[in-house]
């Protein structure tokens, strides 16, 4: 067993080079020297990205909304919470309110910040702020979706049934679900 | 509001082409036609990968082990659960036991499967099986880490303190933590 050493020396990055680039993705190789002298070359996605938001929108004290959307990576329809990238100049809470209007047709009077999460930090620098939205009102903004998203109502009391579904498996969505349940209990 | 339509027609993939390729990553573009006639070109990571495992290793009825490891994507040390890719020919539970031996120096007499999770399915087809490990015994296998991982003991009763840390933010780790807490409560 160890203690957490907050001053542990990070590896030195001796060289970085772009090795592949597409419209969305830039892959770079970095030559690393660890503090024990070990040399390694790792691949990672370049750039930090703009950050993203995910919203758990409650329509009353126990029911929330999910969207069902095509996921190209798995070529399947997936259930999840509304989410999206933060636009340049936007605050995370503004992005959350906008995405809610675009994806589910509601604005939020109240947004509670829950947590910032990452995804596979060995390869990506992708951060997402998770919010709860309450006191919704109908307002739609045009989004960039190729087809309207199905909007599904679910009860926090049926959490087990949601976790048992094979189309609700995205780790950031499951994290948001548990954080929302915890938040509700603590109110 | 909608009902979930399990028979919703998936978009047709008219064409796929590789647009970028590195040692680890292959990016492809796919030309899609949605059932409403809308045409889009999306990028995604090609290939389904081998699958991965993550393990929450309990050393008694409330304490578990974390590893602290360099993450190249964020260039920082991150706390998380031991994890790794499934080797060809391995069952997920075998991979979980092997990774535990490589990363924390313990084998597991008992492994409980908890959940299969995905990561950003809009772009990736990356699945991970989450396990709880119990009844551990000391056994080390050589891993491929550039430096020994710090192994940290934590109590499930200090869940809030772990969630408050800015180096425990990976969504699959937070998901595993909540699933482990739920599993413990249900025993």
Automatic annotation (TrEMBL), chains A, B:
This is ADP-ribose diphosphatase. It comes from Paraglaciecola chathamensis S18K6. Pfam families: NUDIX. The lineage of its organism: Bacteria, Pseudomonadati, Pseudomonadota, Gammaproteobacteria, Alteromonadales. GO terms for cellular component: cytosol. It comes from the Bacteria. Residues 48-186 form the Nudix hydrolase domain. Its EC number is 3.6.1.-. Keywords: Hydrolase. The keyword tRNA processing does not apply. PROSITE patterns: NUDIX, NUDIX_BOX. It is an enzyme of class 3 (hydrolase). One of its GO terms (biological process) is nucleoside phosphate metabolic process. Its cofactor is Mg(2+). The keyword Hydrolase applies. SUPFAM superfamilies: Nudix.
């Amino acid at each position: 067993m160890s203690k957490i050493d907050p001053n542990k020396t990070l590896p030195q990055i001796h060289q970085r080079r772009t090795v592949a680039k597409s419209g969305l993705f830039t892959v770079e190789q970095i030559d690393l020297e660890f503090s024990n002298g070990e040399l390694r070359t790792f691949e990672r996605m370049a750039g930090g990205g703009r950050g993203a938001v995910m919203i758990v929108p409650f329509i009353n004290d126990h029911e929330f909304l999910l969207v069902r959307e095509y996921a190209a990576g798995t070529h399947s329809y997936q259930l999840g919470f509304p989410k999206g990238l933060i636009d340049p100049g936007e605050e995370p809470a503004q992005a959350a309110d906008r995405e809610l209007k675009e994806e589910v047709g509601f604005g939020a009077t109240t947004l509670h910040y829950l947590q910032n999460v990452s995804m596979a930090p060995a390869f990506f620098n992708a951060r997402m702020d998770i919010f709860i939205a309450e006191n919704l009102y109908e307002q739609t903004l045009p989004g960039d979706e190729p087809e309207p998203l199905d909007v599904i109502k679910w009860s926090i009391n049926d959490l087990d049934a949601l976790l048992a579904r094979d189309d609700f498996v995205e780790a950031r969505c499951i994290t948001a679900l548990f954080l929302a349940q915890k938040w509700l209990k603590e109110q």
